[in-house]
Hints:
Elements: E1 5-6, E2 13-14, E3 19-24, E4 28-34, E5 40-42, E6 52-53, E7 56-58, E8 64-66, H1 68-71, H2 73-76, E9 81-82, H3 93-96, E10 106-108, E11 117-120, E12 123-125, H4 127-146, E13 152-157, H5 163-175, E14 179-185, H6 186-193, E15 204-211, E16 216-224, E17 227-236, H7 241-255, H8 260-264, H9 267-283, E18 289-294, E19 297-302, H10 303-327, E20 337-341, H11 348-358, H12 371-383, E21 394-395, E22 400-404, E23 408-413, E24 418-419, E25 421-427, E26 437-443, E27 453-460, E28 473-479, E29 485-491, E30 497-502, H13 510-522, H14 524-553, H15 560-577, H16 582-612
Parallel strand pairs: 3-13, 13-14, 15-20
Antiparallel strand pairs: 1-2, 3-4, 4-5, 4-6, 7-8, 7-9, 10-11, 11-12, 15-16, 16-17, 18-19, 21-24, 22-23, 22-26, 25-28, 26-27, 28-29, 29-30
This protein binds adenosine-5'-diphosphate and magnesium ion.
Residues 25-28, 212-215, 240-242, 278, 281-282, 285, 342-344, 346-347, 369 line the site of adenosine-5'-diphosphate.
Amino acid sequence: MAKISINLTTGxxxxxxxxxxxxxxxxxxxxxxxxxxxxxQVINDTGKGVLxxxxxHFQADGNVVIGNDAKAFLxxxxxxxxxxxxRLLGRSYHDIENHKDLFSYKIIDDDxxxxxxxxxxxxxxxxxELSGMILKELKDRTExxxxxxxxxxxxTVPAYFNDSQRQATRDAGKLAGLDVLRIVNEPTAASLAxxxxxxxxxxxxxxxxxxxxxxxxxxxxxxQNGIFExxxxxxxxxxxxxxxxxxxxxxxxxxxxxxxxxxxxxxxFMQALRLKAExxxxxxxxxxxxxxxxxTIPCEITRIKFEELIxxxxxxxxxxxxxxxKDASLTSEDIQEVIMVxxxxxxxxxxxxxxxxFKKPVHDKINPDEVVALGAAIQSDxxxxxxxxxxxxxxxxxxxxxxxxxxxxxxxxxxxxxIPTKAGRQYTTSIDGQVxxxxxxxxxxxxxxxxxxxxxxxxxxxxxxxxxxxxxxDINFLLNADGILKVHATEVRSGVKQxxxxxxxxxxxxxxxxxMLIDSIQHAKxxxxxxxxxxxxxxxxxxxYTVERFLEKNKSYVSDEEIAETNIFLNELKxxxxxxxxxxxxxxxxxINEFTRPFAERLMDQAIxxxxxxxxxx
Length: 618
Ligand code: ADP
Ligand code: MG
């Protein structure tokens, strides 16, 4: 249903409410939308700027402030000032244990496997709630700036985010009152902002280099038929512009022979130094020298000195680029476009080093701290149906299916299927009167489920008692555009239903996906013969079960000799079943089939003549 919103200042009516693109960053967040001219544009709420620092401050009076207003409290009220919450999103304490010193606020560690919580005063907050607060602030500012309500959004996440982190981002959006239409990879958004991948005919391999405040990541993407496939990602989640600031602070401490101990006892001074260092760093992007003061301490640095201080850090990012190429089995020559993302790529030495490594000029025309949000706005425009010529698709890296008899994997959505997608199959019971059906969902390429990864398991309960093979259980898989899987099971005759949403706690890394694929290729031959044996066995077991049941129920249609002979066949089949010889099993199944066919025909004739007399069949 289309919503109608009225712009109160102009009185104009908008038929459909707008969809915005949101870059929910570790350091800064921002929103972009498609303006009436059809171009992506960042939101600048009057006087508040474009970038909203991703910081939440809980004030003593219970109020919560977000953004620049919260930043000031990082030093004066660290326990109540939450920054870098993106690092905690969808994570367990176990995941972040080694980095907990970086957080000045209290992270709860009572259960190391469940998702982290943060304690502020006497209240607990989840990273989802805190991210939700940041998103709510972004929503409010956007509504204020555009004077229209904003209910739908596309939110970006790093390419390496796993299912749990993606789901957490989506949930944060929900808490902010946003209908999150799509979770998009940051490198994909950056690429769209440069118009790369908008033409479905275009085939390209690109690298996206993203150096933000505290994190670095590089992604290699293959763009083909409008599909953005992540070939590899690499990076360092604790490397970024903050390290550049720290390097300058240390340099000033040494140059002025300041006493480290006394400084560490004076957090306000330390923070002032850090802010001055960031100011110097930004100035050195365009100037060759910076001069300033903190109190009476002179703070001077030249661009040459600065570059000397940070060159090791930049080299570290280049190592990551090398690894990303290696993982994608590519060399720098294979990369056709290099896109710069993140505020820290403004530093000229970063740009020149990256350009040298890839041996080509880099894309840097668009503001690197806005490029992801601008691309997200383009993605939202595509979703809104305003760019009919393009369809953006992703693919699922591994097959999804369920366990069938004998522990076999039955694929429902094959690997490399374009998402969103849905597919289903019908199954039945194997035992008379079976009222529950266990449905186990797996991901992977191997023929045996035990070699694959289990995603979920649930019981379809309350199937009315029927003979084996009678119930019709439809199992449907719906894989949405964010890679989240919904599984529905319905018994068609009775309407009994069950549904699960698969939110695996931990997603797979690219390396794990790759390993699963390699394993499946290496074991393909033995998997096939194993599968055939299991299928033959399952069929044989079903046959024994059905025939024995038949003889029990329909004694009057078969002679004693026939029963005796059938039992001989059955015993032969049973011993074949334990032999492990597939062909032998199949031969015995055929023999029984052949021998018992007349019984069934006799029964059928009887049933038909009963029906003709207008009686119901038993
Ligand atoms: P994130 O993606 O982590 O939220 P951003 O992309 O917003 O981060 O980048 C923030 C970083 O960019 C900060 O370390 C900031 O100091 C740095 N930065 C911003 N402008 C410049 C500039 N002109 N030169 C160098 N670094 C800059
Ligand atoms: Mg970013």
